[in-house]
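Record type: monomer structure entry
Structure origin: computed from sequence
Chain ID: A
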Amino acid sequence: MNKIKNIDALILAGGKSSRMNFLDKALLKYDNNRTFLEKITDDLENFENIMVSVNKNQNFLIPRGTIVTDSSENLGPIEGIYQGLLNSKSDFIFVTTCDMPNITKELLNFILQFTSHDYDAIIVKDKKGKTYPLFGLYNKSSLSTIERFIMDKNYRLQDVLAELNVKYISLENTDFNPQILLKSIDTEEELNFNYIFRDCTPFIAVCGAEITDQSNLIDQLVKHFKDANYKVEVIKSNSECNLNILEKKEFDIILLQGFENEPFPKIEILKKDVSLSPSANPTNLLFYVSDSSEILENSSMKSISLKDTISIFKEILKVANL
């Protein structure tokens, strides 16, 4: 395929990664063979020119391209985009970040087809209206506005976009899932679950206590998901089921009943009249659900009241990035 010569690519890699215990996200392992930065660079292989934006304190080798260094500290991604535009050899830069490693060439190509000098920026928007200012195209026509915001010490990209002529590209009627593809990996917990959910529909097991308790909780969770317009499927461990369904994308989330011995993301129910002793495989245990004040007040055990199904639902949404 011919190289993309009229658009430069910019990978933002200059963040502090404070929520990742200050580990450099660009160097985190994406799979057995590549770091985040290496994987993203592979996805950008069709770009003739690639820039990697770093801060003054970073020092690492990049797989390909040139390094662009922030001239000012602690300004956030607006400084990286500003420096990228200043150093670009083209009128446009395609911006992505080193902590969104699940992007694909197909999604990149979809966005690039909307390139137009009629706009200062071209930004992705999901079906819920959430915008992704760190994944899209910026025209050099935006440079003066970005510079003015930096001079005014307003570093919020959303405020910048409000003054630019922006084309928002909705992914609502496409096969792209921004909750997976554009997931920002900010914590070590999210890094762990990204390995699990990367190639499949998010899934959570509900185990512990008795089967009736599991079923009752799942029924309540299904109601909450459907009320919020999510597509949810339930798989029971005692049925003849094929876990290959996890690889299908027609559901937003899959709830598993049982599977307590598997290393799946899971919720364990602990009940006073059954057992307050955890017995499930602790690997990827999310939290406990209980009717016992002894459990709920134990600061060493992350737990939610069995009656508070809304809070359980919201916690699952966070884990599954829904």
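Annotation 1: The radius of gyration is 22 Å.
Annotation 2: Residues 16 and 22 are 6 Å apart (CA to CA).
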